[in-house]
Design goal:
The chain has helices spanning 27-37, 53-59, 90-106, 115-123, 149-152, 166-171, 231-248, 252-259; strands at residues 5-9, 11-15, 20-24, 40-44, 62-65, 110-113, 128-129, 157-161, 175-178, 185-186, 194-198, 204-208, 216-219. By secondary structure, the protein is an alpha/beta fold. The chain has a single domain (5-259), classed as Class I glutamine amidotransferase (GATase) domain (Rossmann fold), CATH 3.40.50. The radius of gyration is 17 Å and the shape is globular. The protein starts with a strand and ends with a helix. The relative contact order is 0.16.
Length: 260
């Protein structure tokens, strides 16, 4: 059987001395799709209104919503303007939010990571905290940027896993350790999403669209950074891969039922 196609969302970023705009996704997502999901990775450009969302849904077998330094535009969830200098990506938002809604409606497997989790929530009607570190009851979830990847992406805090949840079945334990590289976080949880795990300060770290006809799961941390060494990170991608192959074989609905 032919390998499934998994879309990986890109951001618009400026590269080179000339600041040329590019569509980019980190190599870690591509490698996870290659090595664990066992799919052909297809980069989805952040081309705004030019994106043919319906064609993407018809051709792809799954979608990975990637992390990014940019933040979801606050007007999309009724929030106040971002602080000056906060990176945004209007073109990406214009692709990912309708893509999420179409994927859920069509039963296309969806794995949302970091910014992807926030897009997942906003696309379904939820809202975001813009800077968790400014809230009196939250700690700083943003690991300082530094050149050493093993320090930048190291485990940063615990996540309390909801008993009996999908994440609980994946992890096999009530508490896990995760990396943490984000400022924004879920404020109001979107209708249709259920909480799968929380940080010690109450920040929502994992969600699932339990009523969706296909795999629809999101995490606030970055399992693509350590899927080679961390069993849970690898299991997240492997389980997503099972759903993708079931979709490819025409058994997406059966997989969703089995996951519950």
């Amino acid at each position: 059987m032919m390998k499934p196609l998994v879309g990986i969302t890109c951001c618009r970023k400026q590269f080179s001395v000339y600041g040329m705009p590019n569509h980019a996704a980190s190599d870690t997502y591509v490698r996870a799709a290659d090595e664990v999901v066992k799919a052909v990775p297809v980069l989805i450009p952040a081309n705004g209104g030019a994106a043919d969302v319906q064609m993407l849904i018809e051709r792809l077998d799954g979608i990975i919503l990637t992390g990014s330094r940019s933040n979801v535009q606050p007007e999309l969830y009724g929030g106040p303007p971002h602080a000056e200098g906060t990176p945004e990506d209007e073109a990406r938002d214009a692709v990912t939010l309708p893509l999420i809604r179409a994927a859920l409606a069509g039963g296309l497997p969806l794995l949302a990571i970091c910014r992807g989790l926030q897009e997942f929530n906003v696309a379904l009607g939820g809202s975001l905290h813009q800077r968790l570190q400014d809230l009196p009851d939250r700690f700083d979830h943003a690991t300082p940027l530094q050149p050493l990847a093993r320090l930048r992406t190291a485990k940063a805090h615990a996540v309390r896993v909801v008993p009996g949840s999908f994440l609980h079945r994946l992890a096999g334990t009530s508490e896990i350790a995760v990396n943490s590289l984000h400022n924004q976080g879920i404020n109001v949880l979107a209708p249709g999403l259920t909480i799968e795990g929380t940080a010690p300060d109450g920040t929502i770290e994992a969600v699932r669209a339990a009523a969706a006809p296909g795999f629809a799961f999101g995490v606030q941390w970055h399992p693509e950074y350590d899927f080679e060494t961390d069993a849970l990170s690898r299991r997240i991608f492997a389980t997503f891969g099972e759903a993708v192959r079931a979709r490819r074989a025409g058994g997406g609905a059966r997989y969703a039922a089995a996951a519950d």
